[in-house]
């Protein structure tokens, strides 16, 4: 997802800094080490984001990216079968495409936002208040904790969500930049020179 992609889906736009040095190699494992697991609770999510220099406010705003996209059954199976902080009808709908047995339907996909999965807006937060977060980690953002008020504020004001999302994306883009002769300034951000 980039600034152009968000805008094409109805979301906000922002200027992406140019001249940043990028690595000439990629590490799938290294990247995944910094992505919170979908089973994370609020304290763990907050801690993992803080380790990257992002606040809890940034975390809630950036989680709004889940207004688009899909998740594999393996990532939400435990939530739709075992958790109690989920709407029963929503859970049954998700269970119909995600069998309880591990190894069966593991790669089946479900939209992170059942209502508007291809539009970038604030319905993700509305889903959380209705206990329709697909991932356990999503529903943790509205579960009687410290982030409930922020979720409510994004429901009340999509423009506040967009503004905070842009701030979070810019901050995320500044995490551990390469300096000196490390990496390269790319001519095309999608591939090495």
From TrEMBL:
Q: Where in the cell is it found?
A: Secreted
Q: What's the Enzyme Commission number for this chain? A: 1.11.1.7
| Any one GO molecular function term | metal ion binding
| Residues bound to Ca(2+) | 67, 113, 116
Q: Which SUPFAM superfamilies match?
A: Heme-dependent peroxidases
| Binding, substrate | 36
Q: Which cofactor does it need?
A: heme b; Ca(2+)
List the GO biological process terms: hydrogen peroxide catabolic process; response to oxidative stress
Entry's InterPro entries?
Haem_peroxidase (IPR002016), Haem_peroxidase_sf (IPR010255), Peroxidase_pln (IPR000823), Peroxidases_heam-ligand_BS (IPR019793)
Q: What is this protein called?
A: peroxidase
